[in-house]
Write a structure and sequence with these properties.
Number of helices: 13
Helix content: over 70%
Radius of gyration: 20 Å
Number of domains: 1
Structural class: mainly alpha
Largest sheet: none
């Protein structure tokens, strides 16, 4: 676990949490549908999946659990430099791919004139900022995202920050100190939800600090789920736990209540689901589905949004009917899943394999 405490964790042999992988994929698909619905039904109170922005908090919690599980016992031997190198190889190829897709969508969008407005100079700066994960909120016409070319990169920015803090500080701390930080983070999360009205923050130039608050709590509690051995053994399988996860995303968006419901879901429900998913039983027939879902989750998350910008431009110009959009969204989601698979199979995996060999 760490040098200050004996390793009493039940994970005495290395195992793979297939159900948690599968849940990651479920959350990624929910995010894609949520982003489509943001443009179709901008009023969250009328969207059936309005709370799927909380999927990012689930990702952060899951990341804290997985990073602690994978590195608590070997980071000191592995070394900080090698840890950072491994995280870059795992995460950054798709950051670059998403930036390239975002640039192409920005330049060649047939329904938008934004490229002419900002010009090649700003486009190049946006591309470099996106590739290097340097926040650059410049396109005010499109919600002032930290990374306009590929908006989901905001969560990768905070994921990197969390990984840096983990390697330099968190992995060395005893659990009692982690608990102190987690309580402070929980208070900050509640304050942010009260101040903003909900936790849909962190992605834009005017709410950037909210992202730090969200990752601060969720990553820490994810670590503590692992270190405290909060593994809930049950007969629930992947499908049942997936339904429980979707309940959080499908919860009605009630403006007056979100300042309370959002923190409750993030503070308690998501750590519970991670503990439940780690201890649930996976039927052999669903093992391949969970693996596929987990493998595809990150590529889908990182490549889908440039096509959402094209969809928004199409809506603004063509003004399709609701019936047309009800047909477009499921088809487009399936096509994005297929594209994510192709990029994973023919770009991401080969590139990561090459980098591992070169930098071994």
């Amino acid at each position: 676990m760490n040098k200050a405490e004996p390793n009493s964790n039940p994970f005495t042999t290395r195992q793979h949490f297939e159900i948690l992988d599968g849940l990651r994929g479920v959350a990624a698909v929910a995010v894609v549908i949520f982003h489509f619905m943001e443009f179709v039904v901008p009023d969250y109170t009328k969207s059936f999946i309005a709370h799927a922005y909380l999927a990012v908090d689930f990702f952060f919690c899951l990341s804290g659990f997985v990073i602690a599980y994978a590195y608590d016992n070997r980071l000191q031997t592995l070394g900080i430099f090698n840890f950072f190198k491994m995280r870059l190889i795992r995460l950054h190829p798709l950051v670059i791919v998403g930036s390239i897709l975002g640039l192409l969508a920005f330049v060649f969008d047939p329904y938008s004139k934004l490229y002419q407005v900002y010009g090649i100079g700003k486009a190049v700066l946006m591309f470099l900022a996106s590739c290097l994960l340097i926040p650059y909120p410049v396109v005010k016409e499109r919600y002032f995202n930290l990374f306009h070319l590929n908006p989901p990169s905001w969560s990768l920015f905070w994921e990197y920050v969390a990984n840096i803090f983990y390697a330099l500080i968190l992995f060395r701390l005893k659990n009692k100190f982690l608990w102190v930080l987690t309580v402070i983070a929980a208070a900050a999360l509640c304050y942010e939800a009260s101040r903003s009205g909900n936790l849909a923050v962190g992605w834009g130039g005017d709410n950037v600090t909210g992202g730090g608050i969200r990752v601060f709590y969720s990553f820490l509690i994810g670590m503590l789920v692992y270190r405290s051995s909060w593994i809930l053994k049950s007969r629930l399988g992947f499908l049942a736990v997936s339904v429980l996860l979707m309940l959080a995303f499908l919860a009605p968006f009630v403006v007056e209540a979100n300042r309370f419901t959002d923190p409750l879901i993030v503070l308690f429900y998501f750590p519970f689901l991670v503990a439940l998913g780690a201890g649930a039983q996976l039927k052999p027939g669903l093992k391949k589905l969970c693996k596929f879902s987990g493998d595809l989750s990150y590529p889908l998350y990182m490549i889908h949004y440039p096509f959402l910008w094209l969809f928004l431009s199409y809506i603004e110009v063509k003004k399709p009917s609701m019936a047309q959009m009800e047909m477009i969204i499921p088809i487009a989601t399936l096509l994005l899943i297929a594209l994510a698979y192709l990029i994973m199979a023919f770009v991401d995996i080969p590139v990561r394999r090459y980098l591992k060999k070169r930098l071994a």
